[in-house]
Design goal:
This protein is an alpha+beta fold. 19% of the residues lie in helices and 39% in strands.
Length: 988
């Protein structure tokens, strides 16, 4: 028999079984009439079936040549319906020449392959919200009734946002090969309706006009749009109105809305029940209304009962105990003043104020005191924060529970923790010592672990490897948290190996020892599942050659949830997809082979970003000022970024960036090729740059640059960058503020061909605000004639940053920078110190290196004008002590900076004094204080620095015009002892 005929025969069986499952016994009468006769032929209608012939053979318990039995038909039907692949099956029988012919008519089940929203969508709602409103889940069964429900759900969401004139036109594309339906909903949002005077019902207690006004549905000039957000904001406005009127139990809800077709208006009907006035006050202690609202739940719950009021007692007691009033007494009483007013008074007896001066931990043998303290909320008094320490009965209970959990997780099932506080510690009134006593009890250990039911099945799951990965090994402390971790590990192992239905149970029995237990894990492996195929939908611009190398599953592989999730992560990591939905088609169906689905929503291809900022500091004067010592300055800045993402559908991107400020004008264009040859972490960047730099006010430099860079991620913290750069630099000689005799040497145009390599290692816990870890970088560049330039030198710049938490939130941070430029193959008689062009020299000083200088004001200076010339070497070191200062969002910093820019590496010196007015090769020190205010984009930083030994130098007094005419007055200048900086981000 051919494969085709065998498949057809198998498909007929499926159809018969489905009908028998749904039909009553009477409907099987024709089949019953032929019971016992020999099956001459089995035909499937249609011949093509979604289940393979091999699977059908296993599902159908009868074959050609066997007698027809009604019980076999019923069994086959149940099995076929259990596959989930069919929505309907009918069985027909007819006499044959040598027996009976069984005909099975089947209807395949369709599954959701993707939902897409197109057309003119007016936000809100977003396209994704409309897709979710359909309630059509990827991979789940689909019927025609589901389509009507989906359209209704979309209309409901649109109308909630005032889009009553919208239309939704669904289109279905069927993929018969994979039994998928791809649904596209064409949405025309239409004009959004606006509010009109609402109707207010209920016992409002306040004038209905005030309720209407509180909704703020009407703006300054017109009615607001009837969006869901505006509706909720209106309801919240009414609630706040009632709260201000002290009606804390008021309820406000949206009863219904009416759409007025004429004028396209929405009239909401609000139901408002004002309730009585609830006056809550505190006596015996000063307590702001804001604090009462924070700690008394009536304000949040909108109701009054004894449980809520008692909760307010506990909260207030904890608050005052945390303020140092450890003996505080809090009680409440209620009184009904009138039918429309109820008073609640919290009587507070503060007692004496105390300070926590000592927190002792006793009885701990298994854990160190420091390990226990890390989990505690109780804290001794500090110098700036927590002036009275932190203590309350609630905090004590919290700490007791945390310590108990720590011990229980390590086998101490009977641990006890008690907290006691003693007044007048060491005879000093008001000082309190808190003592936590730990009774560890017996530590239970695991005597042995057995794993039952783990047979390896169709896919080999190595039991030895699985046992080695358990936390509850023989001799290990016993805890239920370890058991939970073991169960999760075993389940994950099986699900990763193709057993998505695996289940696990566990038993604990006493072990041979007095404090030992024996563990038994019982595994129900379930049936193995295989990947039938991996289906990708939703690609519009993106090419499959970008997606396919990231698919970790293929047809015939075990159905691994782990690999499915890793594939989803890799697709997200491409950076071109807004959403990647993952599912298994027919998840409840009892079939071995499953389709794995990925529905992709491509991200927007264009990105536009605008940014504005400013730098406030001593920035070294201005373009017209010849005071080389620096003066206070304000430098506004604007940034523009325009990017074309997923270029050519390959994940490439083109980015244009522009910056305009009083210190820098920059244009750049870059082309990024991520994951080159699909190698993780390997990126190629081709870029061009125009830069007009004014941050070093000795001169203005114009730079044209082109570069090619290859970056490779060597490990999680380490990245290697290799690049070639061609650069044309030119100093605008009309802006020079140095001795004209130096112009031919340091201000001449230069063309540089640079081959460089950079290694970056980042082990910080938080790059924005690190508390521990290290950051290392090393950049080495070779400038040579052979690379297309007219200069020869070597350039190295290295950095090491170190962060360590030395006590709770007290962080010690240090940063060291070293740079070296070494010319070679230069013309005989040329001074190496002035061979390097001005724009290529090291400039330093300021908020990122040494805060004892204004920006870029460190190092050698022109002997006539005093303006900085830069140098061929630099060495900076900064140390910061970072600590909590005020509240939870403001930190303080004490810092010490040292270092300078030097004329050459051999000139680096740790001297702390300046020999003369032309000596700048010495170490400048600065100390200061800074404040860091935490924000979502990083800490806002203000630093005030005092330079201990700033340089003095020969300079000029006058205007830039006088400098050009050589009529400026010579004078001795000095960098100011005081410097300040305002910026975003830590100093390092």
């Amino acid at each position: 028999m051919s494969v085709k005929s065998a498949l057809a025969r198998s498909l007929v069986v499926v159809g018969a079984l489905s009908f028998a499952l749904q039909a009553p016994a009477a409907d099987l009468a024709p089949t019953r009439d032929y019971e016992g006769l020999t099956i001459e032929q089995i035909r499937f209608i249609p011949p093509s079936q979604p289940v393979t012939s091999a699977a059908l053979t296993q599902l159908v318990p009868f074959t050609t040549g066997s007698p027809l039995r009604l019980e076999d038909v019923r069994t086959a039907i149940k099995r076929l319906y259990a596959t989930g692949e069919y929505s309907d099956v009918e069985v027909e029988t007819e006499p044959g020449s040598r027996g009976v012919v069984v005909m099975i008519r089947t209807t395949e089940q369709w599954f959701v392959g993707g939902v897409e929203v197109q057309g003119k969508v007016s936000q809100p709602p977003k396209e994704g919200q409309l897709a979710n409103a359909t309630r059509l889940e990827l991979g789940n069964p689909f019927t025609d009734d589901d389509l009507q429900v989906a359209v209704k759900g979309m209309h409901t969401l649109l109308q909630r946002n005032g889009l009553y004139l919208s239309t939704v036109d669904p289109k279905i594309e069927r993929d018969s090969e994979h039994q998928q339906v791809l649904l596209t909903f064409q949405v025309q949002a239409g004009k959004r309706a606006r509010f009109i005077d609402p109707v207010v019902t209920g016992e409002t207690k306040i004038p209905a006009a005030d309720v209407f006004k509180a909704t703020k549905f009407k703006g300054w000039f017109h009615w607001k749009q009837a969006t869901q957000d505006n509706t909720q904001a209106g309801l919240q406005g009414v609630r706040k109105k009632y709260e201000k009127d002290e009606r804390l139990t008021a309820s406000v809800s949206l009863d219904h809305v009416d759409h007025i077709v004429e004028g396209n208006r929405v009239r909401p009907t609000l139901k408002a029940e004002g309730g009585p006035k609830i006056k809550i006050r505190a006596t015996g202690a000063k307590l702001s209304k804001g604090k009462l609202q924070t700690y008394v739940p009536v304000f949040d719950e909108g109701t009054v009962n004894r449980d809520i009021l008692v909760s307010g007692v506990r909260n207030l007691r904890d608050y005052f105990q945390n303020q140092g009033y450890f003996d505080v007494q809090v009680d409440f009483k209620t009184s009904e003043v009138t039918q429309d007013q109820q008073d609640i008074t919290y009587a507070i007896g503060l007692g004496e104020r105390h300070k926590v001066v000592r927190v002792d931990i006793q009885g701990n043998r298994y854990f160190t005191a420091e390990a226990v303290r890390e989990r505690m909320f109780l804290q001794t008094a500090g110098f700036i924060r927590l002036r009275h320490g932190r203590y309350s009965e609630g905090f004590a209970r919290r700490d007791e529970d945390a310590i108990k959990n720590l011990y229980r997780d390590n086998g101490f099932r009977d641990v006890k923790v008690t907290t006691t506080a003693s007044d007048d510690y060491k005879g000093k009134k008001g000082n309190v010592a808190v003592s936590l006593t730990i009774e560890e009890g017996t530590q239970y250990r695991v005597a042995g672990v057995t794993l039952d039911g783990a047979n390896g099945g169709a896919f080999h799951v190595d039991q030895g490897t699985m046992m080695a990965g358990l936390m509850s090994g023989a001799g290990q402390p016993f805890s239920e948290s370890s058991v939970a971790a073991d169960r999760a590990f075993i389940l994950n192992t099986y699900q990763s190996a193709g057993y998505p239905d695996a289940a696990i149970d566990w038993r604990m029995t006493p072990g041979p020892g007095a404090s030992e237990v024996s563990l038994r894990y019982i595994v129900a492996e379930g049936q193995p599942r295989y990947v039938r195929d991996v289906l990708i939908t939703g690609l519009r611009t993106t090419r499959r050659r970008l997606v396919d190398p990231n698919l970790l599953l293929k047809a015939g592989d075990p159905l691994s949830w782990t690999l499915m999730g890793n594939t989803q992560r890799r697709l997200y990591d491409l950076g071109v997809f807004e959403k990647v939905d993952m599912a298994i088609q027919n998840p409840q169906g009892d079939t071995e082979n499953k389709y794995v689905l990925y529905r992709i929503t491509e991200g927007r291809r264009y990105y536009l970003g605008l940014g504005f900022g400013a730098e406030v500091a001593r920035i070294g004067g201005s373009q017209t000022d010849i005071n080389a010592g620096g003066s206070n300055g304000f430098a506004p800045r604007g940034d523009l970024e325009l990017s074309r993402l997923n270029f050519l559908g390959l994940g490439h991107s083109i980015s244009f960036k522009g910056r305009y400020s009083t210190l820098d004008r920059r244009l750049s264009l870059s082309y990024l090729i991520p994951r080159f040859h699909n190698v993780e972490g390997r990126n190629i960047t081709v870029s061009g740059l125009y830069d007009n730099t004014r941050d070093v006010l000795t001169f203005t430099a114009r730079r044209l640059e082109g570069s090619v860079q290859v970056s490779q991620k060597l490990s999680k913290p380490t990245v290697l960058l290799l690049r070639y750069t061609w650069r044309d630099v030119q100093v605008d000689q009309s802006t020079l503020k140095i001795n004209p005799l130096l112009i031919p040497l340091v201000a001449q145009p230069a063309r540089l061909g640079i081959v460089s390599a950079t290694v970056v290692q980042d082990r910080r816990d938080d790059p924005v605000n690190a508390h521990r870890g290290i950051y290392n970088s090393a950049d080495f560049g070779l400038v040579e004639h052979y690379f297309g330039g007219d200069k020869n030198f070597i350039r190295f710049l290295g950095r090491n940053s170190f962060y360590k938490t030395i006590h709770k939130e007290l962080v010690l941070a240090s940063n060291t920078q070293f740079g070296w430029i070494h010319p070679f193959s230069i013309t005989a008689g040329t001074d190496p110190s002035i061979y390097i062009p001005l724009p290529e020299r090291f400039f330093g000083g300021g908020n990122a290196s040494n805060r004892g200088f204004p920006e870029n004001q460190a190092g050698p200076r022109d002997p006539t004008t005093g303006f900085p010339l830069g140098g061929n070497a630099l060495l900076f070191h900064a140390t910061e002590l970072r600590f909590p200062f005020l509240g939870d969002n403001i930190d303080g910093v004490l810092f010490h900076d040292m270092g300078n820019v030097y004329s050459s590496v051999s000139s680096i010196s740790f001297r702390t004094h300046q020999k003369d007015l032309e000596d700048f090769n010495y170490m400048v020190h600065a100390a200061g204080f800074g404040i860091r205010y935490k924000t979502p984009v990083g800490p806002v930083r203000v630093d005030l620095a005092y330079s201990i030994n700033p340089p003095a130098f020969n300079g000029l007094k006058g205007t830039y015009q006088q400098l050009l005419l050589n009529t400026a007055t010579p004078t001795i200048q000095r960098v100011s002892h005081f410097q300040f900086f305002f910026s975003i981000g830590q100093a390092f």
